[in-house]
Write a sequence for this structure.
């Protein structure tokens, strides 16, 4: 053994620190310096390290990583996560990032150090004399992961909850005077596997840390004391049912008095209730019905009235102790296919919290941190948060209670990709135990509205197991609604469905999705998807739309996790000569990402009888190959392309909606648009007059009108009327904004109107789909040629193998095995004369759907020289190739514009293609068509298949 024994000075230093910190005579705060040692060889138990003072130090609350303990990152680091993007281990482009001391990984945020295994923590304590004969509990608010405890040389027990405090009854172990607490923490998978990608343990998100965080304390309570209080609101009868247990280990005789009192945070109080309880052995169960008055304050998202219940236990007229718990008078229920809160329809507008905390690598345990998160979510129009495969600390529930947020909590498991459920193994037992601990610890919080075992399960018997899970909890505790798992399976026994069926892009769907395969419109919904289900449906993980990395974010990672993945992507972009475009790529792709999220969210809001949605995500998911799916970064901060006010216009309790049959019009048509509203506010909107307006690109209102005055009930798919407006007077092509306002709630949509007829632009330009002899002859003679490539014309090495689509990347290409599209929209200079008759912003909008659907991205690095595109495709950040849809060059004496967009096929059904072709031809006919680059015909021919 190489442990240095004894370290008496360290032991007494820690003992004095405990004495100095103890302000509350019934509580010993254990935060501070602990003795510590890594047990990488698993020899600590055999060598009885608990008998001796450990020879290193660590600060708690904290983790090994926050304390700089552990091993440097290497190619052999034993990560807790599935690695689908394994190219890093062998691809030559990653070779510089595999070198010792220079390791950078693209999978997730990278910790400074890493350790998986056992580590020992030790602390001296001095037990006061008046604790003799009391109940003493040791509480670690959050441990990661398994804790085994020794008091002096006696092993007390083991705890392995991932979502609740680790509590130890030390009443029989601690006598007055000095003692040593020794804790062995092991963050490896043991006899049950919750799944390596579960956000409770995974390196994809918080990381597989080793340590203790939150409140760490010894607490003394009377020997005769109360167990936890459980409060069951009964809104219909203006009362609560209180269940508790009197613990009496000394088996005292006689009776005790239990007094209940409730006070609202708003100040209202409820008359107290007393009950004498006859003691029956060492435990006595108590159930009391406590009237809350004629008009108790109700809790919901609009008025989150919170009560505190206090229970005072007296014995022989002596007050023994007082316990308290928050609760709310609320009933979160289902009526048909919709959720209700206190009998009123509500709609879940949610996002995920995947344990993403880059400043520490573990979840915060203070209410202020969680209040900030919920307030940000609220500003973006949300009322719901799902905790994906983990359970948050107490502070999250407390903050959600005060802000009126509806939470879905899960039992720390994603039984998939290496783990299964329902097969009778250790995980089956653990889920039952963990779910009971979670409900026991947090069940009184009114924000705790929904519960699932965890995420996307697998296993041959998982359906039967999870159906039983739902039915058992329905019978045991009616305070919330239950479903099997997030994502699947859908079973009739669940209180609600969680399924990915109702969303505009599915896993593996690629370019066949609604948003990529069907011309843009907003008249579809999910009524046919949910028509056979009898309970509410929540669409699972909608969105997953990516944005380009914000490399300015790298400097924000000043904690234990670093954005080494961003450093790789930034270097790749620079290697391809586009470092200066990073911010432009971010903003342009962000505008497209926002448009995709708007389409997803509004489809859910349009669906009659729908239950709600859960975004993936409002903020970035840094793992699984780097999934930049948020309009906010992992710190919940804006990225600069959409504000909370803009986002909440289409994501809110009240949202005007339109059912546009298309987004692209010609001026020979009439705009005919049914108008609806989704309204899940505090009360109906009475006597409102919906108004609409159509603004041109300059912001001038060109058309406007109103719809019949009405009262809007709670619910969605409520019809407000139809807008009818002729577009005959629109004489210029361009973008238009349709706005609908109802009772102060305004939403907008971008439309594009083009002339049905266009003037001739001249005959200088030859438009062709092949660089044939006629085209080459024209170029040799100094002519002008527009080469618009036919489908499949590009060689694979020139870009023909790059799948592009209108939407941005779904999740990311690494984790989806290359699911298309591989593009993040377009970037262009809207002031370029090539677009004078095809007005555009600098980024993709609906008028570019046709171009992306009929386009091929041309690899500009397959051409000699520095060719700058007129229209750039933003490539996946992993490959960061220079891609274009339009570029121009001199060829011989002539001038050539190459279009990766097929502008000719089925042109009569494609008004955007007609208008873009017209705009390009008009530009090429003029004197402004002066290409800077010069290429030989062979270079152009090299792009094309033979």
């Amino acid at each position: 053994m190489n442990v240095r024994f004894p370290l008496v000075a360290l032991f007494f230093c820690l003992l004095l620190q405990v004495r100095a910190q103890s302000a509350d005579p019934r509580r010993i705060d254990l935060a501070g310096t602990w003795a510590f040692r890594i047990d990488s060889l698993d020899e600590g138990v055999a060598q009885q390290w608990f008998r001796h003072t450990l020879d290193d130090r660590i600060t708690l609350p904290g983790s090994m990583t926050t304390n700089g303990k552990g091993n440097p990152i290497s190619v052999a680091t034993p990560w807790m996560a599935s690695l689908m993007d394994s190219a890093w281990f062998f691809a030559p482009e990653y070779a510089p990032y595999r070198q010792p001391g220079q390791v950078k990984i693209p999978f997730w945020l990278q910790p400074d150090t890493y350790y998986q295994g056992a580590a020992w923590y030790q602390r001296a304590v001095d037990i006061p004399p008046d604790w003799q004969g009391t109940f003493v509990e040791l509480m670690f608010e959050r441990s990661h992961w398994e804790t085994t405890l020794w008091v002096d040389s006696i092993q007390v027990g083991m705890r392995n909850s991932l979502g609740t405090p680790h509590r130890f009854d030390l009443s029989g172990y601690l006598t007055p005077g000095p003692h040593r607490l020794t804790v062995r923490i092991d963050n490896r998978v043991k006899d049950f596997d919750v799944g390596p990608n579960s956000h409770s343990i995974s390196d994809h998100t918080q990381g597989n840390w080793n340590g203790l965080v939150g409140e760490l304390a010894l607490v003394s309570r009377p020997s005769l004391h109360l167990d936890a209080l459980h409060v069951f609101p009964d809104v219909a009868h203006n009362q609560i049912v209180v269940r508790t247990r009197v613990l009496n280990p000394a088996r005292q005789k006689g009776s005790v008095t239990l007094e209940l009192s409730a006070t609202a945070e708003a100040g209202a109080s409820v008359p107290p209730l007393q009950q004498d309880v006859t003691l029956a052995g060492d435990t006595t169960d108590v159930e009391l019905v406590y009237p809350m008055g004629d008009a108790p304050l109700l809790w919901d998202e609009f008025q989150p009235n919170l009560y505190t219940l206090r229970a005072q236990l007296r014995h022989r007229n002596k007050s023994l102790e007082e316990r308290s718990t928050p609760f709310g008078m609320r009933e979160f229920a289902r009526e048909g296919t919709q959720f209700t809160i206190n009998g009123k329809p509500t709609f879940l507008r949610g996002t995920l919290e995947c344990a993403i905390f880059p400043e520490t690598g573990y979840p915060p345990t203070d209410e202020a941190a969680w209040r900030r998160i919920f307030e940000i979510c609220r500003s973006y129009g949300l009322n719901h948060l799902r905790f994906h495969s983990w359970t948050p600390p107490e502070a999250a529930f407390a903050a959600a209670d005060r802000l009126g947020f509806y939470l879905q909590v899960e039992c720390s498991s994603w039984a998939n990709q290496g783990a299964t459920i329902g097969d009778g193994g250790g995980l089956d037992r653990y889920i039952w135990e963990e779910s009971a601990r979670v409900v026991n610890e947090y069940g009184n919080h009114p924000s705790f509205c929904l519960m699932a075992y965890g995420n996307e399960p697998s296993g041959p018997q998982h359906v039967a197991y999870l159906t039983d899970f739902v039915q058992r909890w329905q019978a045991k505790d009616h305070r919330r609604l239950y479903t099997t798992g997030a994502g699947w399976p859908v079973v009739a026994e669940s209180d609600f469905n969680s399924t990915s069926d109702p969303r505009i892009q599915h896993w593996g769907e690629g370019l066949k999705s609604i948003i990529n395969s069907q011309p843009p419109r907003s008249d579809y919904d999910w009524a046919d998807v949910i028509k056979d289900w009898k309970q509410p449906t929540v669409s699972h993980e909608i969105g997953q739309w990516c944005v380009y990395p914000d490399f300015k974010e790298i400097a924000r990672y000043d904690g234990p996790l670093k954005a080494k993945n961003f450093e790789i992507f930034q270097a790749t972009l620079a290697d391809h000569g586009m470092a200066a475009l990073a911010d432009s790529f971010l903003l342009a792709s962000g505008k497209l990402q926002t448009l995709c999220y708007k389409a997803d969210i509004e489809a859910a809001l349009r669906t009659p009888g729908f239950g709600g949605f859960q975004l993936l995500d409002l903020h970035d998911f840094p793992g699984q190959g780097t999934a930049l799916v948020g309009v906010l970064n992992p710190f919940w901060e804006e990225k600069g392309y959409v504000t909370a006010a803009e986002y909440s216009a289409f994501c809110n309790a009240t949202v005007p909606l339109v059912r546009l049959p298309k987004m692209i019009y010609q001026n020979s048509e009439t705009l005919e648009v049914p108008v609806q509203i989704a309204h899940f506010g505090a009360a109906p909107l009475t006597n409102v007059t919906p108004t609409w307006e159509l603004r041109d690109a300059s912001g001038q209102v060109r058309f406007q009108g109103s719809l019949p005055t009405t009262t809007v009930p709670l619910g969605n798919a409520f019809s407000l009327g139809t807008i009818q407006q002729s577009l005959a007077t629109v004489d210029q092509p361009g973008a238009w904004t349709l706005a609908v306002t109802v009772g102060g709630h305004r939403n907008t949509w971008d439309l594009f109107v083009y002339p049905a007829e266009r003037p001739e632009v001249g005959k200088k330009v030859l438009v062709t789909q092949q660089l044939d002899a006629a085209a080459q002859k024209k170029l040799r003679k100094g002519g002008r040629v527009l080469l618009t490539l036919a489908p499949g014309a590009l060689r694979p090495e020139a870009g023909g193998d790059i799948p592009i689509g209108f939407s941005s990347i779904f999740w990311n290409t690494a984790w989806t095995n290359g699911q298309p599209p591989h593009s993040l929209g377009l970037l262009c200079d809207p002031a370029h004369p090539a677009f004078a008759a095809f007005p555009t912003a600098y980024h993709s909008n609906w008028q570019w759907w046709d171009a992306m659907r009929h386009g091929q991205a041309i690899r500009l690095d397959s051409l000699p020289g520095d060719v700058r595109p007129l229209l750039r495709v933003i490539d996946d950040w992993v490959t960061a190739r220079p891609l274009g849809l339009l570029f121009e060059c001199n060829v011989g004496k002539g001038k050539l514009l190459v279009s990766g967009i097929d502008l000719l096929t089925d042109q009569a059904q494609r008004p955007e293609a007609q208008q873009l072709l017209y705009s390009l031809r008009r530009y090429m006919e003029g004197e402004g068509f002066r290409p800077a680059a010069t290429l030989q015909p062979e270079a152009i021919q090299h792009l094309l298949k033979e």
